[in-house]
Design brief:
two-stranded antiparallel sheet, Rossmann fold, alpha/beta, 50% helix, elongated, 2 domains, 256 residues, 3-stranded parallel sheet
Length: 256
């Protein structure tokens, strides 16, 4: 009987040892799995951080950098000057464009809780349209001013400064013919076609205030912008179909 009891006890002990070994192994495995998961999470977070912090840099070809107007040294020199003598810097830079009446005042700037005021070259007079087009006609009239690509890439144009000037002048004369004058408010509601640029520059040429509305807005959104601007005139086109979606362009009669 004693021998049997001893055998039973030894068997029980061996079983317990086996169970303990198994539990230890399971614990070790679980720890390893946890460590692996943590490592994976860390790697993922690192990848996300590196992808967010890494900047996509396009190296400039030497041909381009050699033809640049300003190199790194010149840029740093100009930047330091703009900090050291801000008024003197912008007095010189302002002369790069054409003025009808040259300026004598550089800036009038104020930032406070009660008043925000930003005015540049405020005693001078210029024409934005003339600066965009006319001043380039002497030496760049045959160079490309606008590259326009339609919905179909085959339908594209390279508009020279000379062609741009002719079309803007035609548009300006057309606007004046229907009674638009300096100070009038004009809403331009066109799709992304060259005529949009022509009309915008024509408004600037004759001194009309222009507000451009994106062609994809709903009738209510368009109406709100026209009313906010208190427009005297609207330049648009007849309803047409967009090739990609075959949806009709919002007609003006829906909100006027």
């Amino acid at each position: 009987m004693r021998k049997k009891r001893k055998k039973n006890k030894s068997k029980k002990k061996s079983r317990k040892l086996k169970v303990r070994r198994k539990t230890r192994k399971l614990k070790v495995r679980r720890k390893k799995i946890r460590i692996k998961r943590r490592k994976k999470k860390k790697l993922k977070s690192r990848k996300v951080k590196t992808s967010e912090t890494k900047e996509l840099i396009f190296k400039v070809p030497k041909k381009w950098s050699n033809n640049a107007y300003v190199d790194r040294k010149e840029y740093e020199k100009k930047y330091k000057l703009s900090i050291k003598d801000n008024d003197g810097f912008w007095k010189k830079e302002g002369k790069r464009i054409d003025w009808i009446k040259p300026y004598t005042k550089i800036k009038d700037v104020k930032y406070s809780k009660t008043d925000v005021k930003i005015r540049w070259y405020y005693d001078g007079t210029l024409n934005a349209s003339a600066n965009c087009i006319d001043r380039h006609l002497d030496d760049k009239k045959n160079k490309t001013a606008i590259i326009w690509v339609g919905d179909d890439p085959k339908d594209s144009k390279q508009i020279s400064y000379k062609e741009l000037h002719n079309n803007v002048c035609k548009a300006a004369n057309g606007l004046k013919e229907i009674g638009i004058k300096k100070g009038d408010r004009v809403t331009i509601y066109l799709t992304m076609i060259p005529e949009l640029a022509y009309v915008m520059l024509a408004c600037a040429r004759i001194g009309a205030i222009h507000s451009i509305i994106f062609g994809g807005f709903s009738p209510d959104s368009i109406a709100g912008r026209i009313n906010d601007c208190q427009s005297d005139y609207i330049v648009t086109l007849s309803p047409f179909f967009i090739p990609s979606s075959f949806k009709p362009f919002a007609a003006l009669h829906t909100f006027l």
